[in-house]
Amino acid sequence: SSMLQASRGTVKAGTNFNAGADAEVLHKAMKGLGTDEDAILQLLTARSNAQRQGIKDTYKTLFGKDLIDDLKGELGGKFESLIVALMTPPIAYDVTCLRNAIKGAGTDEKVLVEILASRTPQQVKDIIAAYRQEYDDDLEEDVCGDTSGHFKRLLVILLQVNMIFSSLSVEDSKTALFKAGEQKYGTDEQSFVTILGNRSAEHLRKVFDAYMKMTGYEMEESIQRETSGNLSALLLAVVKCARSVPAYFAETLYYAMKGAGTDDDTLIRVMVSRSEVDLLDIRSHFRRLFACSLHSMIRGDTGGDYRKALLLLCGGDDA
């Protein structure tokens, strides 16, 4: 299914790829006075991540320098962040985002929620291994040290990708959720956490349908009513991702740009990490949910080379 999945991205591998020629273009764009940002962004958005790694290796061989260091030396601001993100292998990028979310000033729970709720079990496994290799730390321990309560418990459950879930039947799950939420005074968050931590999206969708039939409420409505704060955000993300990962990311992008100011970190993270996965699907969900195109919203919300590069990643305008 990886081939099938890969075809839903907006960024494809460039044809007739020549790492040496590309490395030369980048070197020339950064040589001497001034920088040809346009040449850099046009090239890198037209290559897959795997090809960018090839360019990086060849650049080192040809010029004896680290391409990412050179780019950082020439670029600045959000545009630099976007280009560096594009140059980072996907799992390494997730690992860096998680590390910064945990070790930065205060914890950026939003990043923990987004990555751990949306990645496949195999990706989570790879992330845990890469995190250990990169930092010689245990991701689960770091998450535990930085979070608390039911929010922490659900994050830990999402990290247990090897666990075989006690297969509570759909019947039992919906009843337990009803009893945990709508039916009692005070909410039994633990039940929400245990049941929604089940990694099988297919199973969860059946539970949501059964829950709706039984209570007349969508799962999301109950979560919003019965829980709050980080836990609520994480439960909602898990439910939304079980229903549709691309729809979840369409919403994430919309709220990163809606209103005053832009959450550029989220905009960069999602556009880069979904560009070869499902950005085409994200675009169509975006159009359906918000009655405007992702392209037009990015265009209205960003500027300069940063905007140019984001629009190239976005691909077409579904106006």
TrEMBL record:
<keyword id="KW-0106">Calcium</keyword>
<dbReference type="InterPro" id="IPR001464">
    <property type="entry name" value="Annexin"/>
</dbReference>
<dbReference type="GO" id="GO:0012506">
    <property type="term" value="C:vesicle membrane"/>
</dbReference>
<dbReference type="GO" id="GO:0005886">
    <property type="term" value="C:plasma membrane"/>
</dbReference>
<dbReference type="GO" id="GO:0050819">
    <property type="term" value="P:negative regulation of coagulation"/>
</dbReference>
<keyword id="KW-0041">Annexin</keyword>
<dbReference type="InterPro" id="IPR037104">
    <property type="entry name" value="Annexin_sf"/>
</dbReference>
<protein>
    <recommendedName>
        <fullName>Annexin</fullName>
    </recommendedName>
</protein>
<dbReference type="GO" id="GO:0005634">
    <property type="term" value="C:nucleus"/>
</dbReference>
<dbReference type="InterPro" id="IPR002392">
    <property type="entry name" value="ANX5"/>
</dbReference>
<dbReference type="InterPro" id="IPR018502">
    <property type="entry name" value="Annexin_repeat"/>
</dbReference>
<dbReference type="GO" id="GO:0005544">
    <property type="term" value="F:calcium-dependent phospholipid binding"/>
</dbReference>
<comment type="similarity">
    <text>Belongs to the annexin family.</text>
</comment>
<dbReference type="Pfam" id="PF00191">
    <property type="entry name" value="Annexin"/>
</dbReference>
<dbReference type="InterPro" id="IPR018252">
    <property type="entry name" value="Annexin_repeat_CS"/>
</dbReference>
<dbReference type="GO" id="GO:0005737">
    <property type="term" value="C:cytoplasm"/>
</dbReference>
<dbReference type="GO" id="GO:0005509">
    <property type="term" value="F:calcium ion binding"/>
</dbReference>
<dbReference type="GO" id="GO:0001786">
    <property type="term" value="F:phosphatidylserine binding"/>
</dbReference>
<keyword id="KW-0677">Repeat</keyword>
<keyword id="KW-0111">Calcium/phospholipid-binding</keyword>
